[in-house]
Design goal:
Number of helices of chain A: 12
CATH superfamily of chain A: ABC transporter involved in vitamin B12 uptake, BtuC
Low-confidence stretches of chain B: none
Shape of chain A: globular
Oligomer: heterodimer
Shape of chain B: globular
CATH architecture of the domain at 10-92 and 162-235 in chain B: 3-Layer(aba) Sandwich
CATH superfamily of the domain at 10-92 and 162-235 in chain B: P-loop containing nucleotide triphosphate hydrolases
Strand order of the largest sheet of chain B: 6-7-8-3-9-10
Structural class of chain A: mainly alpha
Helix content of chain A: over 70%
Distance between the termini of chain B: 37 Å
Distance between the termini of chain A: 39 Å
CATH class of chain A: Mainly Alpha
Radius of gyration of chain A: 19 Å
CATH architecture of chain A: Orthogonal Bundle
């Protein structure tokens, strides 16, 4: 157990990992709260998985895979958003298609590059132990963009999530804010990929926020609590996984999942007592 | 914002509306004057909610015209307060009563960013009027149907509208609470026009000065006396008359 803290004190890779988890948690708390109250986990899943297409192409071309991820995430967010707003009936099918096609493109491009398995695995399941200083800086930047956007348009975002028709009547451009919200999800997904990988992103995006929702009654408090919970889950998961050399991303998700299970159980126990 | 008193609050001319080739409303002509307390009654599926949503500009008519104070709907949205059907409501949402009511200030508030002092003062005033001020900090998840309904009325009032559109505001509450909430509407009617959807002709008739019966098209309007013949036309028979005593 001491080894973790010794390494943490001396080795920058573990400091970066811890810091990466904390930075990712801020994004997941802010955006995850909107994903949970809007019940758009499936949409967020579509955005997250299609990102592999962008990562694969960027990787094949020798560019930064995270730049590719960001472009692909924003593109998927806008396509899914427009489909949701214009052709609601096909929403389900289209998201599924974008989800799978994005991944297929990614797999084909990565298979034609060197280091197929290692890279594919780290895209899919994350590798928190190899976060570079540069990546931390990008994560910080994405966090700042998210915070500024949410702070500036908090009341509009809450209004469209709560009652979209009333928001229209009150003259809010709901289509614009809906697309911006999905773009925010795209940014957060990219933030989280390095930490838990794109397969597990949805869990970290929704579980802390879903737990927080059980205890607070404002979106602002939900964001705050979800961010703190995210930090606890990523740090705890990292700590538990370190010595037995378990995959950190998967351990983090198990910690979050267990916390959600216990919290829901405790909550229903209190309610029916 | 004083309105020209000669203009009708809501004027609908030759309105037709359909969804995917299914005709919902046909040949609707109606006028609601300023200060009216109008009731819109009719069977489920008769197009009441569609008509309200057309007036709000949420739906587009196939043909015909709707004006609010003589102007197109979109330019008059600030003048309209809307209380949606409670049944369609996300009552699981983590939000306090006060923050819900404050949403009524969107689009009319002069403040950018967060809600400001002026917004809060107005929210408190309307919460007092609808008797939910004591619940201001409570979560909406903990409210009863009647309390939630009054919160939604307060939210609509927070916009300081000139017209209130209410869709079945008493569908989920008991009769005593129903009377209380109609007394609030009566007071509100002193300063604004009201159009209310109700399933209960007998009840609303104690309060309203104008009734419109809708089943795809207008069966009766203005002050046509509502006879059992009209009710038959409206609901298609098999309706037993129940007299309400309040």
């Amino acid at each position: 157990m001491l080894e973790f803290f010794n390494t943490l004190a001396t080795q920058s890779f573990l400091q970066n990992a811890l810091l990466g988890g904390i930075l990712a948690s801020i994004g997941c708390g802010l955006t995850g709260s909107f994903v949970v109250v809007n019940r758009i986990g499936y949409m967020a899943g579509g955005i997250a998985h299609s990102v592999l297409g962008g990562m694969g192409i960027a990787y094949y071309l020798g560019l930064n895979p995270f730049a590719g991820a960001l472009i692909a995430a924003l593109l998927a967010a806008i396509i899914i958003g427009v489909i949701k707003l214009k052709w609601q009936h096909q929403e389900d099918t289209t998201i599924g298609a974008i989800w799978a096609v994005g991944m297929a493109i990614g797999i084909i491009f990565i298979s034609k590059s060197d280091g197929y398995n290692t890279n594919l695995m780290s895209f899919l399941f994350g590798n928190i132990l190899i976060i570079s200083d540069e990546q931390l800086f990008i994560m910080l930047l994405l966090d700042i963009i998210t915070i500024i956007f949410v702070a500036a348009f908090y009341k509009q975002l809450v209004a469209i999530s709560f009652d979209i028709e009333f928001a229209i009547v009150r003259g809010i451009n709901v289509n614009l804010f809906y697309l911006l919200l999905l773009c925010l999800i795209a940014i957060t997904v990219v933030l989280l990929i390095q930490v838990v990988g794109l397969i597990l992103v949805i869990a970290l995006l929704t579980l802390p926020a879903a737990i927080a929702k059980q205890y607070v009654h404002s979106i602002g408090m939900m964001m705050l609590l979800a961010s703190v919970l995210g930090m606890i889950f990523t740090s705890t998961g990292l700590f538990i996984s370190y010595e037995p050399d378990l995959p950190a991303g998967a351990t983090i998700i198990l910690v979050a999942g267990l916390a959600y299970f216990i919290s829901s159980l405790a909550k229903s126990f209190i309610r029916f007592k | 914002m004083t309105k020209d008193m000669t203009k009708a609050a809501i004027e609908i001319t030759d309105l037709n509306f359909s969804i995917e080739n299914l005709s919902i409303l046909e040949n609707i002509n109606m006028t609601i004057e300023q200060g009216d307390f109008a009731g819109l009654v009719g069977p489920n599926g008769g197009g009441k909610t569609s008509l309200i949503k057309l007036i709000l500009g949420l739906y587009k008519p196939q043909s015909g015209k709707i004006t609010i104070f003589g102007e197109p709907v979109k330019s008059q949205r600030k003048a309209i307060g809307y209380v949606p059907q409670y049944a369609n409501f996300n009552s699981d949402f983590p939000i306090s009563v006060q923050d819900t009511v404050l949403q009524g200030r969107l689009g009319v508030s002069s403040c950018f960013g967060r809600y400001c002092r002026e917004d809060k003062v107005i929210a408190q005033k309307v919460m007092q009027e609808t008797e939910v001020f004591d619940l201001a900090q409570r979560s909406i998840q903990s409210l009863s149907g009647g309390q939630m309904q009054r919160v939604l009325v307060a939210r609509a009032l927070a916009a300081e509208p000139k017209i209130m559109l209410l869709d079945e505001p008493t569908a989920n509450i008991d009769q005593r609470a129903e009377k209380d909430i109609f007394d609030i509407f009566k007071a509100i009617n002193e300063r604004m026009t009201i159009l209310i959807i109700s399933h209960d002709i007998g009840f609303v008739s104690d309060y309203i000065n104008k009734v419109f019966c809708l089943n795809k098209t207008l069966i009766c309007h203005d002050s046509t006396p509502v006879t059992s013949d009209t009710i038959h036309k409206l609901y298609g028979g098999h309706v037993s008359e129940v007299h309400h005593h309040h």
